[in-house]
From TrEMBL:
Pfam families for this protein: PPR, PPR_2, PPR_3
PPR repeats mapped onto the chain: 10-44, 45-79, 80-114, 115-149, 150-184, 270-304, 305-339, 340-374, 375-409, 515-549
Annotated PROSITE patterns: PPR
UniProt key word Repeat: yes
Name by which UniProt lists this protein: Pentacotripeptide-repeat region of PRORP domain-containing protein
Family per record: Belongs to the PPR family. P subfamily.
Organism, as annotated: Gossypium barbadense
């Protein structure tokens, strides 16, 4: 057109071209046309500025959009409602919900009233900024403006309710939308949100009250059928969400069903769908099916991305398929796909499990050189590698490096270092690290307590052991009975019989169910301390609790009475044992 002699530049044509570039997120070209039209003496109007603001908003350049608004005001062109809506959207879609609210306030101050589109954009801004409670509050205020919400409004509200765990309210809105008299009918976004809701419920225990006697993935499949009944054709997003739901709920049959449903409906799987399906198969332990799907993906020339290989490598590691994980690494390198943090961490774990510490170190160093900063998972993987190699010094050094880089260690990382210290004969360092954990408020767990008890046992530090028991007391109902038995045995072997019995009383008082082994430890140490009266009393406790003493327990006490006691005490012991009315040798 421009090459023709009779060409006459027109503002409306430039506006149309700017909108076209905006739709395809070609911001530079849109801005170029804006300057070009002025060279041709076409004066930009309100539609021009609106299109340009929209173009920058599409790519998250909200500051550019704000500057364009200022230029618009300088050119004495009054902004329209669409101008403000585009600007609010530019700020909100970038997560800058505060800036979006400022623009909204300026809009009302300038006498331009918000419409339904404005309200939806503000709600979306809150959602993008993870301000879900504020979005719900804004929705309540919106009801007072007599502007009726549409499907987009309710979709945002449902999404926010799901994020806040208010599943019942989300379902109420969904059901109201499906009512025949409803003005706002559910669309594909609505149904996809509900599928996601059910997938989340399959993972959360307390959601059983809301969806009692329902398996979340089965309900999600039902929603897919409902979509078709409503005349809404499921798309690839629905399939991806449903596949992820089945994986979370660990339902291998439904993964196959969803893939079949997609094929029957001629929905062509894309990279995201393949990733969801492969990840779901890995989650349920179906390694062969995951590999078959990966091969199908390659055969159909669907491009694998970093997520694909992250799922394959991490899944292979979790299923102890180490050689396959390394094979996927070769594929990834061959395709020149950058390695992710998850891939690096999984590979470090793979090398660690195979005892290849040098390779694990090499991978860890490669991770740092590539500019991919190691996270707590990667550092923990290296701690496990050094722990397996019984190299406590390197484990300690990597832990210090972790701290220096501002990465807060968690219970798993600390436990790996505690174990390395114990295996390396450094029990005193275990107690120092345990103190550090308490100072940093790092949660203590069963494995951490086990290493602390082991360190006390090696050091024969009874004062610290007693302090440890006091620390552990609130945790008694949560720690394993095996660990408590270890503590009882530690005190008993050291001759601290009174402390051992006090600990036993505390265990009983905490409601922890004691086992046969617990009583066996008590009896063994009581007999070693020649405390036969308490021995017989404990036998009585066993009978009262419904635990049958073994034949050996009676043999031990009778043998003790004959060898170590006088005739008078031997008769008393035999008499007391006889009163138990239990099997005697």
């Amino acid at each position: 057109m421009k090459k023709q002699k009779n060409y006459c530049a027109r503002t409306d044509i430039y506006n149309m071209m700017i909108r076209l570039h905006a739709r395809h997120k070609r911001t530079d070209q849109a801005r170029g046309l804006f300057f070009e039209m002025q060279k041709w003496r076409c004066k930009p109007d309100v539609d021009t500025y609106n299109a340009l603001i929209h173009a920058h908003g599409q790519v998250g350049q909200w500051r550019w959009a704000m500057n364009i608004m200022e230029d618009m005001l300088s050119a004495a062109i009054p902004p329209s409602r669409s101008t403000y809506n585009n600007l609010i959207n530019a700020c909100g879609s970038s997560g800058n919900w505060r800036e979006a609210l400022k623009v909204c306030k300026k809009m009302t101050e300038n006498g331009v009233g918000p419409d339904l589109v404005t309200h939806n954009i503000v709600l979306s801004a809150y959602k993008s900024g993870a301000q879900y409670s504020k979005a719900l509050s804004y929705f309540e205020l919106m009801k007072g403006t007599h502007i009726r919400p549409d499907t987009t409004t309710l979709n945002i509200v449902i999404n926010c309710l799901v994020k806040l765990g208010q599943y019942g309210k989300a379902m109420d809105i969904f059901n109201s939308m499906r009512d025949e008299r409803a003005d706002s009918r559910p669309d594909i976004v609505t149904f996809t949100s509900i599928i996601h809701l059910y997938s989340v419920c399959g993972q959360i225990e307390n959601c059983k009250a809301v969806f009692s006697a329902m398996l979340a993935e089965a309900e999600a499949v039902e929603v897919l059928r409902q979509m078709e009944q409503e005349g809404i054709k499921p798309n690839i997003v629905s399939i991806c969400t449903l596949l992820a739901a089945c994986g979370r709920c660990r339902q291998k049959v439904n993964i196959d069903a969803v893939l079949s449903a997609a094929e029957l409906r001629c929905i062509k799987l894309n990279t995201v769908a393949y990733n969801s399906a492969i990840g779901s198969y890995m989650n349920v332990g179906e390694f062969e099916k995951a590999i078959a799907l990966y091969k199908s993906m390659r055969k159909r020339k669907v491009l694998a991305d970093s997520v694909t290989y992250t799922v394959l490598i991490s899944g292979s590691y979790k299923l102890s398929r180490y050689s396959e994980a390394l094979g996927f690494l070769d594929d990834m390198v061959g395709l020149k796909i950058p390695l992710t943090k998850e891939v690096y961490s999984s590979l470090i774990c793979v090398y660690s499990k195979q005892g290849q510490v040098a390779e694990a170190e090499s991978m860890f160093n490669m991770m740092k050189v590539s500019g991919c900063c190691p996270d707590v998972v990667a550092y923990t993987a290296m701690l496990h590698a050094y722990n397996s190699a019984e190299n406590w010094a390197k484990a300690s050094a990597i832990f210090l490096e972790m701290e220096e880089n501002g990465i807060q260690p968690d219970s798993i990382a600390c436990c790996a270092l505690l174990r390395a210290f114990n295996k390396g004969g450094q029990p005193s360092k275990v107690l120092v690290l345990a103190k550090y954990m308490r100072e940093k408020a790092i949660p203590l767990n069963d494995a951490v307590f086990f290493e602390m008890v082991s360190a006390c046992s090696i050091l024969q530090d009874w004062k610290t052991t007693i302090d440890l028991i006091k620390l552990m007391e609130p945790w008694f109902p949560l720690v394993s009975i095996g660990l408590l038995n270890q503590l009882l045995n530690l005190l008993g072997k050291s001759g601290k019989i009174e402390s051992m019995m006090k600990l036993f009383y505390k265990i009983i008082a905490s409601g922890v169910p004691v086992s046969f082994n617990t009583y066996s430890i008590l009896l063994k140490n009581l007999l070693a301390a020649e405390n036969w009266r308490k021995y017989i009393e404990v036998l009585q406790w066993m009978e009262d609790s419904g635990i049958q003493p073994s034949k050996g327990m009676f043999v031990d006490i009778v043998s003790f009475s004959q060898k170590r006691c006088g005739v008078e005490y031997a008769d008393k012991i035999k008499e007391k044992v006889g009163k138990l009315k239990l099997f005697l040798p």
